[in-house]
Write a structure and sequence with these properties.
Distance between the termini of chain B: 62 Å
Shape of chain A: globular
Number of helices of chain B: 5
Shape of chain B: globular
Number of helices of chain A: 18
Oligomer: heterodimer
Distance between the termini of chain A: 68 Å
Order of helices and strands of chain A: HHHEEHHHHHHEEHHEEHHHHHEEHH
Strand content of chain B: 15-25%
Order of helices and strands of chain B: EEHEEEEEHHEHHE
Structural class of chain B: alpha/beta
Radius of gyration of chain B: 17 Å
Largest sheet of chain B: 5 strands, mixed
Structural class of chain A: mainly alpha
CATH architecture of the largest domain in chain B: Orthogonal Bundle
CATH topology of the largest domain in chain B: DNA polymerase, domain 1
């Protein structure tokens, strides 16, 4: 008798837990825990930063007045890198994001009423950028960096809205994603519950205003963390490893914490010069970071890049490198390949040639803990690039067919040990893996 | 001052060359010009852009183009190359008997003017013709593969069209290069 009632009690408890879980999940699914940081009260109240509630439509005069500032902010937020596809119409979307379960495409954010956001209210726009919920309650995928944009001020979102509404409408349909089933979007409520901070970061009063401005530019507008922060199994940014670097599109987005930047040889002043120029003694921006310079950092004011550098470097001093020991036969082989295939452009002493090829002796790529980016550059080569101020760098040939795996490993180890001060730990197998890996 | 040097042996235009003492850090173009008297491959930009310095590197996988102004001489140790001097048929006395089909076509099409870039274009076109002999191309793709083969080469006089037309004429006239 007693046993039966105990069993029954256990069963009932389990049932209660299951029902509670189901109800809880249902509540999450239906958005009960969704947390908006957008003030949508219908009162024309003025918020802290002096802006009216987004529930009130913006007048044409207000749009015209705000648009120029919005243009600058759109550059700082690097909207174009994704929303103007390669060779595509301005703001008509198109950039592809290869995800493990399909391909996503950036959407049309021109003010076209049918295909773009022409029919979006100011409040719709605020909620999309800061809550990740588009017009009509449709959830955005976090390829749109709303986790970072959540920290944008309402005033800046207004300016971005005003700018986009003054652009030419582009009647370009959005490309459908290739996800195997269309229900993922609805489950973004769960993702947001785990990965979307509930509150907005406040200024750190212990730091200088420039530092706080830099943090806003880096964390919110520039959304640097989206590429430079490792992600967990839910594909959310791992908060306590913020900016510590991540593998993205087959290459490493480096660690850009103060310690990481110091290791790469950046001082605060050096980084403030490098960000808008795209090159410097540390080398040349490559891979997706080139787009960031091309669409964004080159347009920033001197004060703003200085603020970003102040926040990112945070007082750290660049680390001097010293050659590390390397086996004599590896050094001899690596040196020989360098002289034969690299030195004509990068210089026998690693000094580089201005406007042709960057210096190797101070190159940040050789200072990265992992040799991946160096190996990708050697195997694939790099395209010719134009930089601000009529600066340019020539194409780097691919050496995949000119050197065997072991030879590329020797070359990489010689470069790392000699100029990077990093461990000569590259193996032929690692090179072979780089050769086989898929890259966009 | 003596530059550190070591012996280099390679095959140039079908003949064994060396061992000759070549400075460790010398580029191949300088060896061709200064040691071997082969001045066909030209020094243009010296940075690997203009492709006036290219020669054919014969490898087990087939011939490939290589820029001698940015490639060290010792990379070629034990390897075989062909410079523009090695393309024409020569008689027993070493004199040219017949130009290669590519060279002949360039002349017939008035493809070059100053001629500085010509050795590079001969090299690229010859490699293309030899590749198509092994792997013929569909008729519809002929123009595309010619463009791709010549694209890296820079010419400042005649503007590419005549080179392009000459190579197309050779590709279409040589049996076995085009299918369909």
């Amino acid at each position: 008798m007693r046993k039966r009632s105990l069993a029954r009690r256990i069963l009932v408890s389990i049932a209660v837990v299951v029902v509670a879980c189901v109800l809880g999940a249902l509540a999450v699914f239906l958005g009960a825990f969704e947390n908006s940081v957008v003030d949508t009260s219908l009162e024309p109240l003025v918020t802290d930063d002096g802006h009216a509630s987004p529930a009130r439509p913006m007048s044409d005069d207000e749009i015209a007045a705000l648009a120029p500032r919005g243009r600058y902010l759109a550059a700082a937020a690097d909207c174009a890198a994704c929303h103007t596809g390669p060779g595509g119409a301005p703001w008509a979307g198109g950039r592809a994001f290869e995800m493990p379960f399909g391909t996503l495409y950036a959407t049309n954010i021109s003010p076209d009423p049918t295909y773009g956001i022409g029919g979006w209210s100011r409040a719709d726009f605020h909620r999309a950028l800061r809550d990740g919920v588009g017009k009509g309650g449709r959830h955005l995928y976090p390829a749109m960096p709303y986790v970072s944009y959540r920290n944008l001020t309402a005033a800046d979102v207004d300016a971005l809205y005003a700018f986009l509404m003054t652009q030419a409408p582009m009647a370009v349909p959005n490309r459908a994603d290739s996800f195997p089933f269309p229900y993922v979007r609805r489950f973004m409520t769960f993702w947001n519950l785990i990965n979307l901070p509930r509150t907005v970061a406040a200024d750190d009063r212990s730091k200088a205003p420039a530092w706080n401005r830099g943090r806003y530019l880096v964390d919110a507008l520039g959304h640097c963390g989206e590429c430079h922060t490792p992600r967990d199994f839910t594909m959310g940014m791992i908060r306590d490893r913020y900016l510590e670097g991540a593998l993205i599109e087959g290459v490493d987005a480096p660690d850009i914490t103060p310690a990481g930047l110091a290791r790469l040889g950046f001082s605060e002043e050096g980084l403030a010069r490098f960000l808008p120029a795209g090159l410097g003694p540390q080398g040349v921006v490559s891979f997706s970071m080139y787009d960031v310079v091309h669409h964004s950092t080159r347009y920033l004011t001197g004060d703003d890049v200085a603020a970003m550098a102040a926040y990112l470097v945070d007082g750290a001093l660049p680390v001097a490198t010293a050659p590390v020991p390397i086996a004599a036969d590896v050094a001899a082989s690596g040196r020989q390949h360098y002289v034969e295939l690299c030195s004509a452009c990068h210089g026998l002493a690693g000094e580089g040639i201005p406007h042709v090829a960057p210096a190797m002796a101070t190159n940040a790529d050789l200072r990265l803990p992992d040799a991946r980016n160096l190996l990708v550059a050697v195997v694939d080569g790099l395209p010719a690039r134009a930089f601000p101020g009529r600066e340019r760098m020539q194409a780097m040939p691919a050496f995949a067919d000119l050197l065997a795996d072991g030879e590329i490993a020797d070359l990489a180890n010689y470069l790392r040990a000699t100029w990077g001060g990093t461990a000569p730990d590259v193996t032929a197998d690692a090179v072979s893996e780089i050769r086989r890996a898929e890259r966009p | 001052m003596t530059l550190p040097a070591r012996p280099l042996s390679l095959t140039v235009n079908g003949k064994a060359v060396g061992p000759i003492d070549v400075p460790d850090e010398m580029m191949m173009l300088d060896v061709l010009h200064e040691y071997l008297g082969l001045t066909g491959p030209r020094m243009g930009c010296g940075q690997g852009i203009c492709h006036a310095c290219t020669v054919i590197l014969d490898e087990p996988g087939g011939p490939r183009e290589i820029r001698t102004c940015i490639t060290g001489a010792h990379y070629f140790a034990g390897r075989a190359i062909r410079t523009v001097e090695g393309h024409a048929e020569r008689g027993a006395d070493g004199r040219v008997v017949r130009l290669s089909p590519v060279q002949q076509a360039f002349i017939e099409h008035f493809a070059f003017q100053c001629g500085y870039c010509t050795p590079g274009f001969v090299t690229a076109a010859t490699i293309l013709v030899e590749r198509l002999a092994r792997q013929p191309v569909a008729r519809a793709d002929v123009e595309g593969v010619i463009e791709a083969a010549l694209a890296p080469h820079i010419c400042r006089c005649t503007g590419y069209v005549r080179y392009y037309e000459a190579v197309r004429a050779v590709v279409l006239a040589t049996p076995g290069l085009v299918v369909g």
